[in-house]
Amino acid sequence: MPDFAHLRFGLPALAAMLGAMVVITVVAGLVSGERRRRQAAASLTAIDFVRSSFATRLARGDPMDELMVQVVEALADAFKLDAAELWTHNDGALRRVASDPRRPEAELILTPAEEGIIANAHVSGAAWAKVWLPSLLQNRADAPLRIAPVSVSGLLLGLIVVERRGSADTLAADVDATLEELVREVAVALNKQRLDMALHVSLEQLRRQADELQASRARIVAAADAERRRIERDLHDGAQQYLVAIAVKARLIQQLAKTDPARGAALTQDLVRDVESALDELRTLAQGIYPPLLSSAGLAEALGAASSRTPLPVRLDTDGVGRYQSELEAAVYYCCLEALQNASKHAGDRTSATLRLWEEAGSLRFAVDDDGAGFDPASGTLGAGLTNMRDRIGAVGGTLRIESAPGAGTHIQGSVPTGATTHQEHLPAEPVP
User: Fold this and answer.
1) Assigned architecture for domain 32-200
2) Which long-range CB contacts under 8 A does 209-213 form with residues at least 24 apart?
């Protein structure tokens, strides 16, 4: 008969062994389940803070720096981290703006290529940082890290960096999924802040431009009123006096024609001289309003004639410049004339100037340079002449740049959009509706 005696002793041992394995499996499952539960709870704690409290307080207008500190504190507490940091990216640099425990601010400079690589990276560790972001590892003594880029549509907004030396082998498994979702939520907030700041800057620029435009229009209206008063004075004190004298002498000649023809003939000569003087006065007045040569021949000829009348030597370069709308030509003409007059008055003896006109990229450009005494633009407000130049060019949609320094001369450059290619014939101003 077979000997089953030894089985009587082996079966209980086998049963005990199987029971132990079942117990171990159950316990391991319970431990694993508990770990997953704790991880899920920790994940929800950090993410819920960002989704609820963080988003609500951000919309309420709480300071962003305070909220970012609370993000890293919630993250460090949820996963029992040794450190958690939040870095923001701006102007080609990463800056540590929040950390738990508190660490000093730091800055890492990035190249555009590095920005693109980091923005499109997933949650990574120290090995990845050694290749793409080695400066982040300084003074960390090979600490176990997880690095999560914060980005929107390939635009790098920042980083979240976490460290944990205890249970380092499970750090990635514990936090990566949470970090992936967390950076999405933080990216929305940081991107909103970025857009809000850009909108604020744009609105401030628009307000400033509106204020400058309003002030410019007020100055233009005041200048126009002053110019009308000047013309009225010039007509009253100059040409009108000639015309009154001519009328008086004409009546006197009419009376003397019968009684004293010889005296009447002599007065006729005086009358001719008075008429010529009145014409000269009117020509001078008309040139002060709009130079006839500018209307008939254009900028190159008019500025050439104006340059020849200035006390200082002027080198003129106007090759390739044609005809433009009358308001554009007038604005450029008077700006160049004002620049030459300022140089004549203030640049000092032995000063020379260069005046250039050219067309570039659909704009008429001009530059007036002198090698005179110069001035400090930051020392005070610009004079009336320079302010008038800005207003003239701004009124036709152009820009003006004034650069100067004591002893280094003055450089004035402006640009006005032509709206079309150069025309050989003079373009009349568009009628005002």
Assistant:
1) 2-Layer Sandwich (3.30)
2) 212/394, 213/394
